[in-house]
Amino acid sequence: MEFARQITLPEIGSKGHNKIRKAEFTIMGVGSLGTWAALILGSMGAGDVKLIDRDIVDESNLYHQPLYKKNDVGEPKATASKKSLQEMFPQTKWETFDIDLNSNNIEKVKANVILDCTDNLETRYLLNEWCIKNKQPWVHAATIGVSGTVCSFLPGKACFKCLYPNAIAEETCETRGIFNPVASITASIQATEAIKISLGKEIDEGFIRINAIPLSVERITFRKNPFCLVCSQKKFEMLEKKPQKLITFCGGSVYQGYIEQKSMKIAYERRGPLTIFRDGRVLIKAGNEKQAKSILARYFPL
């Protein structure tokens, strides 16, 4: 019998399993954390899982993002991950969005529970505002080096802005690296909290930090900030912010821009160092911003 060991658990049972089967999850970012989280949700019989990622598979991803194979290099991550997941877990409905989340399309994340597996603060602040405005629960996770963090956010409680009022990203996965075991541990805790929310069970509202070398687990409590601009004063600056025309991804080797290209018949196509998506979004492999602009202008003169 499928999922017999899971149904046997008194903490889940047949009623809990049916809740998981009917639940909708969104995984934002299908990289180191998102691939592990997707595997766990699929293995537990999640009903509907959205996979959202703006990036394409790079050869360097193959050694720490378990869903990708060599022939996936150059393909959008959301699309490539769906192929592997559908084969392993056909009972789950896997939806994909090869998009850059911004104020124009953030509503795509809507689900019973959102898992934040992104790699940048701007998207997390945007998600935080949208979830507060729409009373949406979400579970944040991040990992870099040999450390990982997890924190759940529920409607009416302390928000991401309370925890990180003025955060600045000082390191990236490319400059610091990622210890693959800690990514899987962090994603496991994140997926556990997401499943607990879907079951209506009590979750840990603290900030959890995992360190792999040396091994330690720390739990930090924090409170809602009565002066928080977002959850207390309901000022949604990120939701009102227009998408940037040219931005860089983690590490700086891939840039993103937009062109007037809205009628493509296929989801994406490649032209030299460019990957062009149906909505006009373009990924450019370049050494710096100046080179990225030059390549974009070469293929799409302004």
Helix content: 25-40%
How many runs of DSSP E, i.e. beta strands?
Answer: 13
Radius of gyration: 19 Å
Structural class: alpha/beta
Strand order of the largest sheet: 3-2-1-4-5-6-7-8
Task: Supply the number of structural domains.
Answer: 2
**Low-confidence spans:** none
Query: Could you state the order of secondary-structure elements as H and E?
Result: HHEHEHEEHEEHHHEEHEEEEEH
* Major pleated sheet: 8 strands, mixed
Looking at the structure, the CATH topology of the largest domain is Rossmann fold
Helical stretch tally: 10
Shape: globular
Termini separation: 60 Å
Instruction: Provide the CATH architecture of the largest domain.
Output: 3-Layer(aba) Sandwich
CATH level-1 class of the largest domain: Alpha Beta
Strand percentage, roughly? Answer: 15-25%
* CATH-level-4 superfamily name of the largest domain: NAD(P)-binding Rossmann-like Domain
What structural keywords apply?
Rossmann fold, 13 strands, 2 domains, globular, 5-stranded antiparallel sheet, about 30% helix, 10 helices, about 20% strand, 8-stranded mixed sheet, about 300 residues, alpha/beta
Description:
- By secondary structure, the protein is an alpha/beta fold.
- Helices cover about 30% and strands about 20% of the residues.
- The protein folds into 2 domains: about 5-240, 3-Layer(aba) Sandwich (Rossmann fold); about 245-300.
- It has 10 helices and 13 strands.
- The longest helix has 20 residues, at about 180-200.
In short:
By secondary structure, this protein is an alpha/beta fold. It contains ten helices and 13 strands.
